[in-house]
Specification:
This protein is mostly helical and 163 residues long.
Length: 163
């Protein structure tokens, strides 16, 4: 067994463990932290695939920004309003959907996926130039939109607290 295969097996186990922690955790804050563990393991898989840019994006955007926004939303939620919610009645449907997805992935794994060598090198200099020249405005607009959403959540939460 090569070192890269052993590292992949460890990262896959960590990713699956984090995913199981997300769906089995009764505390939502712990579920968010398990999600962070799973996302960081996926970033590790990207590093093994020599896709350093994707690993960096995975850590910065998903591991950083999305988890922080999720934790902010959890902190601003009033947990006292949800004391009566203990379980979801759609759990059998979720188990059926998960089993179906597992079956589809197993069939895809057995068949071997796409044939041929379709991998191409990405010129990171061209990608960076494109991101910071023609795509900088959409990224800034999305950043401002997320800030407005976060401020809206804070204002709505404070308005409910005054009642």
């Amino acid at each position: 067994m090569s070192l890269s295969l052993a590292l992949f097996a460890v990262l896959a186990a960590v990713c699956l463990g984090g995913g199981l922690g997300v769906v089995t955790s009764s505390n939502v804050a712990y579920a968010a932290l398990f999600l962070l563990v799973s996302l960081l393991a996926v970033a590790g898989v990207y590093v093994l695939l020599l896709a350093e840019f994707l690993a960096l994006v995975q850590v910065l955007i998903y591991g950083g920004a999305v988890i922080i926004v999720l934790l902010f939303a959890l902190m601003l939620t009033r947990i006292q309003e949800f004391d009566h919610v203990t379980d979801n009645p759609q759990k059998p449907l979720a188990v059926l959907a998960a089993a179906t997805l597992l079956g589809v992935l197993a069939v895809a794994l057995v068949r071997g996926g796409p044939r041929g060598n379709t991998l191409q090198n990405v010129d990171l200099e061209r990608l960076g130039t494109a991101l910071f020249s023609s795509w900088v405005i959409p990224f800034e607009i999305v950043g401002v939109l997320l800030l407005v959403v976060l401020l809206g959540v804070v204002i709505i939460t404070q308005a409910r607290g005054e009642r």
